[in-house]
Amino acid sequence: MLMWVQSIVPGQVIQGRVRMLEKQFTRIYVKDLPLMETKIWIRRGIGIVNPVVIIGLPGLGRIGGIISRYLIKRLNTKLVGIVTSPYFSNQVIVSKKGIARITGVRMYKSGNTLENSDLIIVTADEHLENIWGEYDIAIKLLRFLIKKGVRLIVTVGGHVSSTGSKGVIGFASNEQLLKRLEEAGCRKAEMGTPVVGLSGIILGLSSIMGVDAVCILGETISVRPDAERSREVLNVLNKFLGLNIDISDFQREEEKINEIISRYESKVKQLIQDEKARKIAEAFMPPDYVS
């Protein structure tokens, strides 16, 4: 059985004028409240020392998610922490083994170290659409990492280029880190390049909170999984951090991803050609909206 300790002490449970049933309310709500705000849970007995943190989250081209999943498998990692929050969708995800887990952020610790620093891989199940939630999770995650003496944060993801170019771009919290990025094969991002979502907020807040941080982005064309650009970003990341891992086996990941895309597109084509299925889909089509 996994034993977890909550790393953030919850605030006062009961406030207000109700006194008669205070004990009853406390008994009920203390049990339920841990998931009513963003919480970080760390596996009991696990130490994290001066970590270098790689953050790869779902997003454009699925690049961040693809890279984090690959590194989690490749670097002999172990799940050491989770972040739960009401800003994630209200569901659980069931594994191949039939085991359910709540949606959220997951932190993995590698068996390898980088110059006496623990290597932590951070990933998530979904891309948040709530701005308040993104800031809340980013700030609490950063505060936790700062307490652990974080040395460097590296976010990886995708970016749609306005010029249609394809490559790997990056930026950093200081000129020294930016120079290292360029030496690793990364092109300096143009002025005004936006990085939206949790990855972007973490990067921006890192500078304010005094944490060294860099961002490596693969220029992609859409939200569909981009295995080729993921490999290029992974190559830059490998050189930048000096991971010294042989990524030749990433080709198998590319083949799996492309096979899944091919099957998906084939199913979509079949549904489009099926008049009955098309009518059902049109009947449940949601209204257009501007996000």
Mean pLDDT: 81
Which class of secondary structure composition applies to the elements? alpha/beta
- Regarding quaternary structure, what we see is single chain
Residues in helix, %: 25-40%
Distance between the termini: 42 Å
Spatial strand sequence of the major β-sheet: 1-2-4-7-8-3-9-12-10-11
| Strand-residue proportion | 15-25%
Order of helices and strands: EHEEHEEEEEHEEHEHEHHH
The shape, in one word, is globular
Total DSSP helices: 8
Write down the CATH topology: Rossmann fold
Number of strands: 12
CATH class: Alpha Beta
How many domains is the backbone divided into?
1
Rg is 21 Å
Low-confidence stretches: 8-31, 284-291
**Superfamily (CATH H level) name:** PAC-like subunit
Describe this structure in words.
With 291 residues, the protein is α/β, with parallel strands linked by helices. It has one domain (29-245): Rossmann fold (3-Layer(aba) Sandwich). Helices cover 37% and strands 24% of the residues. The protein has 8 helices and 12 strands. The protein has helices at 22-32, 63-74, 131-147, 175-183, 197-208, 227-241, 250-273, 275-283; strands at 4-6, 39-43, 52-56, 77-84, 92-94, 100-102, 105-114, 117-124, 152-160, 168-172, 187-188, 213-220. It has a 10-stranded mixed sheet with strand order 1-2-4-7-8-3-9-12-10-11, with helices on both faces. Strands 5-6 form a two-stranded antiparallel sheet. α2 crosses α6 (227-241) and α3 packs across α5. The longest helix is centred in the last third of the chain and has 24 residues, at 250-273. Residues 8-31 and 284-291 have low confidence and may be disordered.
